[in-house]
Each structure stands twice: as structure tokens, then as C-alpha cells.
Specification:
By secondary structure, the chain is mostly helical. The protein folds into 2 domains: 281 residues, no CATH class; 204 residues, no CATH class. Helix content is 71%, strand content 3%. It has 21 helices and 4 strands. A two-stranded antiparallel sheet has the order 1-3. Strands 2-4 form a two-stranded parallel ribbon. Helix 3 packs across helix 20, helix 6 packs antiparallel against helix 7 and helix 14 runs antiparallel to helix 18.
Length: 500
């Protein structure tokens, strides 16, 4: 057990000493603020058929825990998934495997480290909820138990399940990249929708990984006790950001902590640990290999293009990292985008066109780091801004063909789609430059893809840009310039640090 804890502590220390940690904490604080809208706000985050609880400790603790176990597994999976491959990417995997540790101990240590990271982010969100209870002033009496019990009994087991899923996906061959991320979206959706669908959230379900119905069952029971047998109450639950028009409030009496609830959460935590032990024999079987030239035909085509030398080198590198299957997919998606119309385009081709370049852009953004050439390139006389711009243009080219084909159907307004693609490429390069890891962009881009092109959330769906092409293009241009400026500043700062 001490070996497992030692692995977990070492991993947590390494992961928390990065700039990315500050960004995650800032994100958690922002989420904690958004979770608690003012009474006059245009949205509500937990809506039970037109009702929400008064902002007291009982409601805030339960609602915040509910939001965490609903939404955090989606983002948290991408946050902790790189733990299993970090040693390999840093070149320290052989040292770890040479230590007198079993593979099960290492995997369990990584699992505990994942739990610690997720629990820390969730804890920051809970602290933000306490502050927001005071700010909103509907009830300023703080009951720490009402926050602590949902965190310990519901949130932590959900973190354990998410952490185990990240370990398992990272260990299964082929599930460590974009494909694994796409599969996780649908697994996460099933884990939420199926339990809620069985009882509409009004009764606790045992076979539920995240503990969602453990909270919603108490919410509905308290609501029903408050309003009696009013037939006007709809048994529906909306978790997220929905309109607050006509929302009513009631005093939530707290979560019913039953022995069955405690047992279910303990069992799911134990199952998560067992899953890690069961998968451990497969861990670290495959080692990441240094990128090598691939897609020979496409490489020759790109090599013949009359491009500036720096852009030429970046584009060749991006094509080589993407590989031949990516190139085949680009051709198929471009043809499909040119000829598909209506729902076939909106539901089939368009989502694939937007997700297809995410992996290659993420890989290109950290190609120097993965190849161990960061210091060599910093020593060259090329200005930082030129290298950033060339890499951005190469990343944009990786995404351009299918998006351009989609833009053809939209006429002049289709330019906005290309502007959005340029912005996505710029954000990818900026995140790769800042975090020096592909996971940051992959996670955020996949979440935006799932919510936007797949589920058609208007704010994140590029197809909506054609209805206001000028505003969308200007916004995308602003995002592009800001991201490139940040990437250039970060690359320049790293160069100055290396020189000193």
C-alpha cells in the first residue's frame, strides 16, 4: 500500500507544478460562479419542472454536487487521461518499471493520483459554491456538513469511477487518442441518460456509476413534500444552462443519507479499483515511438508545393504525423461534403469534418516537444512569431479541405466556416505552446465538438455562423489573433529563458 501511495504522491507533485494547474483552478472557480446564477439571470442550472431550491447550504451542496457528477466526468476524463502515458513521454518509464513495484501498484498509484486531481478541482468548485451562497444572499447561514457529505459520499466515488475509466481507456490499444475521446463521449452519455431514464430522477438507481439519482431522488421527494400532490408538476429534470423564465423556488430539506446510498457508492468505488487492477497486466505494453514519415504519396504531393520553406517543413511534419488513414478520411469527407445535403450533411458529414483534424492539430502543436527538439529549434535564428505563424498555417491546412467543401454549400457566408477553422487551429497551437501537451487541446476541442456540431448547441455549432457570417468571421479573427499572440509570447518567453 505504501508503494501505491508513493506513486500517487509523486505523480500528483509532478502534475501540480505546471502552469496548466493554474488554468484548471481558474476554470473551476469560474464554473463555481456560473453554477449559481442570480435570481434575475436569464438561465438556471438545475431546473425540476420549473422549480429550484432556495440558495441555502442544503440546496447549494446538493446542486453543486449534482452538477459536478454530471459534467465533470466529461472534462475530467481528458484532464487525467495522460497520467498513464506521461512517464513514457517524459522518458522516465524505464526507470519506473525498473523499480521494485508491480504493475498493479503503479496503475493503482496512477488511479489515486487521478482521483486526487479530480477531487481537488471538485473541492475548489465546492468552495466557490460556499462563497456564492454568501454572495447571492438568499440564505447566508453556512452549514458545512451540507457541503461536506455530498462531496465525500457522492462526488469522490464519481471521481474514482472517472479516474478508473481514464486508466482503462489509456491502457486499451487504440483508445488513448481521439478515438478513445469520441467513444468516451457516448459512454459518458449512456452512464447519465440510462439511470435517469429509468425513473426520471425520482428514485435512486443502484446500477449508476456517478450517483446522479442519489441526489435527484431527494430533490424530487423534497419538492413533492412541499407542493403536495399538485398534478401540474412535471417529472422532468434539466441539468445545465436552461432558461429561467417562470422559475419558482422551494426550501430543499437535504439529501436523505440512507444505508443503501452509502453501500452503492462504496461498491462503485471498489469496482473502480478492481477495474484498474484487472487492466494492469496490459499497462505499459506499448511504448510511444518517435514520429516517422508516413503517408508517402501525400508527402510527395506536399513536397512539390511551392510554399515558403518554414511553412513547407511544418506542413510536411503535420502530414507525416497525421498518417495515411487521415488523408483517406480527408478525401472521403471532402467528397461527402460536396455532395451531401440536408440532414445527411448536418448530422453526418459536418460533425466528422470538424472532429477529423483535432488529432493532427494537437500532435503538430507539440511535435517539437515529443521529438525532444524544443531546445534545438529555440537555438535557431528564426523569430518566434514566424515559427508560430507557419505552424498555425500548417494546422489550418490540415483542417481546410473538408471545411472548404462545407463552405461551398453556404455560398459567400461559408467564409465564416473557414474563419472558424483558422481560429480552431490557432487555439490548438496556443494550447500546445502553453501546456506542452496535446491533451489540453484534445479535451477542450472534443467537448466543444460534442456540444456544438453533434448536439447543436448554438454557441458552439459552426453551422450557425452562416446566419451571421460577418459577426462570426470577426469573432473568429479576434480569437485567431489573440491565440497567435499568446503562442508567440509564450514561445518568446521560453526562448529568453533558454538564453539566460
Amino acid at each position: 500500500m505504501s508503494a501505491v501511495v508513493a506513486v500517487a504522491l509523486a505523480d500528483v507533485r509532478q502534475r501540480t507544478r505546471t502552469f496548466t494547474t493554474l488554468l484548471i483552478v481558474a476554470f473551476a472557480l469560474q464554473i463555481g460562479y456560473l453554477f449559481v446564477p442570480d435570481a434575475s439571470a436569464s438561465y438556471v442550472t438545475v431546473d425540476m419542472g420549473g422549480w429550484r431550491g432556495i440558495y441555502d447550504s442544503n440546496w447549494m451542496g446538493a446542486a453543486t454536487a449534482l452538477m459536478i457528477v454530471t459534467l465533470f466526468p466529461l472534462a475530467g476524463f481528458f484532464l487525467v487521461r495522460p497520467a498513464m502515458t506521461r512517464d513514457a513521454s517524459l522518458g522516465t518509464l524505464d526507470l519506473v518499471l525498473a523499480a521494485p513495484l508491480s504493475r498493479a501498484s503503479i496503475v493503482l498509484g496512477k488511479w489515486l493520483s487521478n482521483i486526487a486531481v479530480l477531487a481537488g478541482v471538485a473541492g475548489v468548485t465546492m468552495l466557490a459554491a460556499i462563497v456564492m451562497q454568501l454572495v447571492r444572499s438568499e440564505n447566508r447561514t453556512i452549514d458545512l456538513t451540507a457541503y461536506l457529505l455530498p462531496y465525500l459520499i457522492v462526488v469522490l466515488p464519481a471521481c474514482a469511477v472517472t479516474a478508473a475509466c481514464a486508466v482503462v481507456f489509456s491502457t486499451i490499444p487504440g483508445m488513448g487518442g481521439i478515438l478513445g475521446g469520441v467513444v468516451w463521449f457516448f459512454v459518458w452519455t449512456a452512464m447519465l441518460v440510462i439511470p435517469i431514464g429509468q425513473t426520471e430522477g425520482t428514485r435512486m438507481v443502484a446500477a449508476e456509476p456517478f450517483g446522479l439519482t442519489a441526489i435527484t431522488s431527494s430533490l424530487f421527494a423534497s419538492l413533492q413534500a412541499h407542493v403536495g400532490n399538485a398534478v401540474t408538476i412535471k417529472r422532468d429534470l434539466d441539468i445545465g444552462f436552461s432558461t429561467s423564465a417562470g422559475i419558482k423556488t422551494y426550501p430543499f430539506t437535504g439529501i436523505a443519507w440512507t444505508p443503501a446510498l452509502l453501500l452503492y457508492r462504496a461498491v462503485w468505488t471498489a469496482l473502480a479499483a478492481l477495474a484498474c487492477v484487472a487492466i494492469s497486466p496490459l499497462a505499459f505494453r506499448t511504448r510511444p515511438r518517435a514520429p516517422r514519415p508516413r503517408a508517402a504519396v501525400l508527402t510527395r504531393i506536399v513536397g512539390a508545393l511551392p510554399l515558403p520553406r518554414l511553412l513547407h517543413a511544418e506542413l510536411l511534419q503535420g502530414v507525416g504525423l497525421a498518417g495515411p488513414w487521415w488523408a483517406i478520411g480527408v478525401v472521403a469527407l471532402t467528397v461527402g461534403a460536396l455532395f451531401a445535403t440536408g440532414e445527411a450533411s448536418a448530422r453526418g458529414v459536418a460533425p466528422l469534418a470538424w472532429v477529423w483534424p483535432i488529432g493532427p492539430i494537437a500532435a503538430l502543436s507539440v511535435a517539437d516537444v515529443r521529438a525532444g527538439l524544443g531546445g534545438v529549434l529555440l537555438a535557431t535564428p528564426t523569430a518566434a512569431w514566424r515559427r508560430v505563424v507557419a505552424r498555425w498555417l500548417a494546422a489550418f491546412c490540415l483542417a481546410a479541405l473538408p471545411i472548404a467543401a462545407l463552405a461551398v454549400h453556404a455560398g459567400p457566408a461559408g467564409v465564416s466556416l473557414l474563419a472558424i477553422a483558422a481560429a480552431v487551429a490557432a487555439v490548438g497551437i496556443a494550447l500546445g505552446t502553453i501546456a506542452r501537451a496535446a491533451a489540453a487541446f484534445e479535451g477542450l476541442a472534443l467537448i466543444a465538438w460534442y456540444l456544438g456540431p453533434v448536439n447543436r448547441l448554438p454557441e458552439l455549432d459552426p453551422s450557425q455562423a452562416i446566419h451571421a457570417p460577418v459577426a462570426a468571421s470577426l469573432t473568429a479573427a479576434a480569437v485567431t489573433l489573440t491565440a497567435l499572440a499568446i503562442a508567440t509570447y509564450r514561445a518568446g518567453a521560453r526562448l529568453d529563458s533558454a538564453k539566460s
